[in-house]
Amino acid sequence: MSESTTPAQCRDEDWNLARDCGLMGATPGTNEWDAALGRFADGVRATLGQQPQLRAASIMMSRHSRAMLLNILWHHQGGSSPVGQPIRALLGIGQHDHLNNDQLAEAKWIDALLAAPAAQPAENGERAQIIARAVAVHGRKWPEQLTSGVMFYEGERITRAEFNTEVRA
To answer: Three-state SS across 92-119?
Structure first.
């Protein structure tokens, strides 16, 4: 398996919602997947319900968050879909518009990520070495573009606090 060492540029809230809904453990095309998508959409709808003034132009989201929403929309494209319509509104996609080639590529990218086998978590000593390597690779400075406070390096999720602890060590 090829592993990306590019730091993720996604907010913790985005990954937490996807994880809590079961998207990370479900297999696309199964009933479990459909149920997880429904829970994720409920989370999105709840956010929209709490803040009805939100519109696509005013929402800042990472590439990964947008791709996740496009993936859900791809699986629930119907013009009257209770899952798809709030996502269409959030992404600024018309009620009956088809996904364009770029949007479809992003949606399929998420499917590929979810289909890949999960990496096994490192043992504590190995994890400390991975964090140390991440600190060295980034010149002992947290990358400015990672505003979420999380990076993925050598398959490990590293928080900014863990990174900074290693810098001070």
So the answer is: CCCCCCCCCHHHHHHHHHHHHHHHCCCC
- Give bridge partners of residue 151 from the DSSP assignment: 158
Which residue type is seen at 110? I
Q: Which helix (H) or strand (E) holds 153?
A: strand 150-153
Structure tokens at 22: 């079961």
Query: 10 Cβ partners below 8 Å, 6+ apart?
Result: 62, 64, 65, 148, 150
∠ CA 142-143-148 to the nearest 5 degrees? 90
Supply the DSSP symbol for 6.
S
pLDDT digits (tens, 9 = 90+) for 143-159: 888 777 888 888 788 89
> What element of type H or E holds 137?
helix 124-137
Query: For the chain, what are the domain ranges?
Result: 12-115, 124-168
- Token duo for residue 25: 């453990």
